[in-house]
């Protein structure tokens, strides 16, 4: 519950960071920021998933056996090990900033890529402490450090982006230059200042990881870890450092690979979108510029169109990931119960519980994704008041990403089910195959002038559609009983379609008599109400499924009183 509360707070603070940043930087500036952030995110995922899990597992095992000297040594060894990894990753990204930016077709992102490099070091150091405290059963340091880190990112990132942008434009007003380089016009100055403003936001991200690490270091220095001198005296001697390091790596590697594959599609988009859209522009520049006639800012040139479109695509990614950020908790919550059924050989009950997890994921993901599809333009208009010219282009992309969000959010807890039955290799194989499909799709479709940036969403749909279908078949084979994924998702899909119709209809009616902001918010509320009514009165949720939810017992009591359980 502590970690869940922290995750919710982090998501809210993250949205508060991204929304104003998008309005400050615009599409071109966001292409620089997102290029650096897309390189950083999988590395961050490695450090906050695989590394802490390895430390936590070893610490918890030794703590249960009374091996407190070993526990302390695990902390020291992991700190040194992660320090080496962090320094290596930082130097690789710092020295290769220009190379990476050129490879992805966005040379202007080099400043941002270099600015985010030190965060790799800080993330690795933070991970050793987070895993250590989690292994001792203390979740508070991890939760607080995550919130502190995100709050620091919000403040530092926005302030530094504004300062860099203001400083560059002030210099142009005084001397006609932007950070020492001549600008021929105000429009050119606005474009020239964007790499610096994006780098300022990225430096805020780097500073936030340092602040999170500093909090943990100070906390450990003041409060320690709760291990008493007596426990240390009576505990057995610790193992050699080399053996501890080897054990850490063996545990961390599979989890790290899983985390890396989860973000593989983001890296594919980063590597292919600007490169292949550039090919589309070269093939038919007249058609490409004509497609966006009247929608582009006058400063966006033909050569700058790929970076602009990638920046517009970046507007949609935060919304796309939101449903999966919620459904991942369903798989984590159900994992112990499914593991127990697997150990007992109760395959029928296991199949039923797996189907329930997938149904609950669908109940969350389907209305969210179809809602993004139905209200793409009003939602983006609400979130991008300073960039209204970008909304029509982004709305087309978001419709496709809304469908992709459904597939991603359903497959995310499915991976936990495979882990619970001891087949963590299956999700890795499926997402690798799905990523190959996406890479092929992006490579071919993005270069077609008539499709260009829209094809990024199509590739993601094909990727996770493949993972969902093949994952369902594999799940049936592993469990040995039919999990009935299609049946589990059928009624949530009907309710989701009704929800989307209600959202679109209510917005069209309300927008005629009130402002778009209020109309959008009311349309979301009305569609959510319509969805809840259909879900409850169709009695889609069973008692066992409700028990899988957070606070499941309380939810069951309420629904039983209202006779709304299936």
Largest β sheet strand count, sense and barrel closure: 2 strands, antiparallel
> If you compute it from the alpha carbons, what radius of gyration comes out, rounded to the nearest whole angstrom?
25 Å
Task: Kindly name the structural category.
Answer: mainly alpha
Low-confidence stretches: none
What is the end-to-end distance?
Answer: 27 Å
Order of helix and strand elements from N to C terminus: HHHHHHEEHHHHHHHHHHHHHHH
What share of the residues lie within helices? over 70%
- Major beta sheet, strand line-up: 1-2
Give the amount of beta strand, in percent. under 5%
Number-wise, the strands total: 2
Count of helical segments? 21
Average pLDDT value? 84
Bulk shape: globular
General description of the model:
By secondary structure, the protein is mainly α. Helices cover 83% and strands 1% of the residues. It has helices at residues 2-48, 50-64, 68-95, 97-103, 110-135, 140-175, 186-223, 229-234, 241-262, 264-283, 285-291, 305-344, 347-374, 376-383, 391-420, 425-445, 455-479, 485-510, 516-537, 543-547, 552-561; strands at residues 177-178, 181-182. A two-stranded antiparallel ribbon has the order 1-2. The longest helix is centred in the N-terminal third of the chain and has 47 residues, at 2-48. The model has no long low-confidence stretch (mean pLDDT 84).
């Amino acid at each position: 519950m502590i970690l869940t509360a922290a995750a919710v707070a982090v998501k809210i603070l993250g949205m508060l960071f991204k929304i104003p940043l998008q309005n400050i930087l615009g599409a071109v500036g966001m292409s620089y920021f997102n290029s650096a952030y897309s390189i950083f995110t999988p590395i961050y995922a490695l450090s906050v998933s695989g590394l802490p899990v390895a430390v936590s597992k070893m610490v918890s095992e030794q703590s249960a056996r009374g091996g407190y000297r070993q526990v302390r040594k695990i902390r020291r060894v992991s700190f040194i090990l992660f320090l080496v990894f962090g320094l290596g990753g930082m130097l690789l990204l710092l020295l290769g900033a220009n190379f990476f930016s050129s490879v992805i077709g966005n040379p202007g992102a080099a400043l941002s890529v270099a600015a985010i490099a030190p965060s790799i070091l800080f993330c690795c150091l933070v991970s050793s402490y987070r895993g250590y405290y989690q292994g001792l059963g203390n979740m508070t340091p991890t939760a607080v450090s995550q919130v502190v880190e995100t709050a620091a990112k919000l403040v530092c990132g926005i302030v530094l982006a504004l300062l860099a942008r203001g400083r560059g434009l002030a210099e142009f007003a005084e001397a006609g230059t932007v950070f020492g380089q001549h600008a021929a016009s105000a429009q050119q100055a606005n474009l020239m200042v964007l790499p610096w403003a994006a780098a300022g936001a990225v430096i805020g991200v780097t500073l936030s990881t340092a602040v999170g690490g500093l909090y943990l270091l100070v906390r450990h220095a003041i409060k320690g870890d709760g291990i008493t001198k007596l426990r240390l005296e009576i505990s057995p001697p610790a193992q050699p450092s080399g053996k501890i390091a080897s054990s850490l790596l063996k545990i961390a590697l599979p989890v790290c690979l899983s985390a890396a594959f989860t973000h593989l599609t983001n890296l594919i988009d980063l590597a292919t979108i600007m490169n292949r859209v550039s090919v589309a522009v070269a093939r038919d520049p007249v058609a490409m510029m004509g497609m966006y006639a009247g929608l582009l800012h006058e400063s966006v040139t033909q050569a700058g169109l790929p970076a602009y479109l990638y920046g517009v695509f970046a507007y949609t990614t935060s919304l796309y990931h939101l449903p999966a950020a919620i459904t991942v908790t369903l798989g984590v919550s159900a994992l112990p119960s499914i593991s127990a059924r697997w150990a007992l050989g109760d395959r029928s009950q296991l199949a039923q519980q797996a189907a329930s997890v997938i149904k609950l994921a669908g109940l969350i993901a389907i209305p969210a994704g179809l809602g993004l599809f139905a209200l793409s333009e009003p939602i983006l208009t609400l979130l991008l008041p300073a960039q209204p010219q970008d909304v029509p282009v982004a709305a087309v992309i978001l419709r496709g990403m809304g469908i992709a969000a459904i597939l991603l959010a359903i497959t995310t807890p499915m991976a936990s089910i495979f882990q619970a039955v001891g087949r963590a290799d299956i999700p890795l194989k499926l997402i690798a195959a799905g990523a190959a499909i996406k890479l092929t799709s992006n490579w071919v479709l993005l270069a077609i002038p008539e499709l260009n940036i829209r094809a990024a969403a199509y590739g993601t749909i094909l990727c996770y559609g493949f993972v969902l279908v093949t994952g369902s078949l594999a799940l049936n084979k592993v469990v040995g009983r039919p999990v009935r994924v299609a049946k589990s998702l059928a009624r949530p899909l009907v309710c989701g379609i009704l929800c989307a119709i209600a959202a679109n209809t209510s917005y069209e009616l309300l927008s005629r008599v009130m402002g778009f902001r209020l109309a959008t918010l009311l349309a979301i509320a009305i569609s959510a109400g319509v969805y809840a009514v259909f879900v409850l009165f169709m009695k889609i949720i069973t008692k066992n499924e409700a028990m899988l939810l957070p606070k499941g017992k309380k939810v069951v009591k309420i629904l039983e009183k209202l006779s709304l359980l299936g």
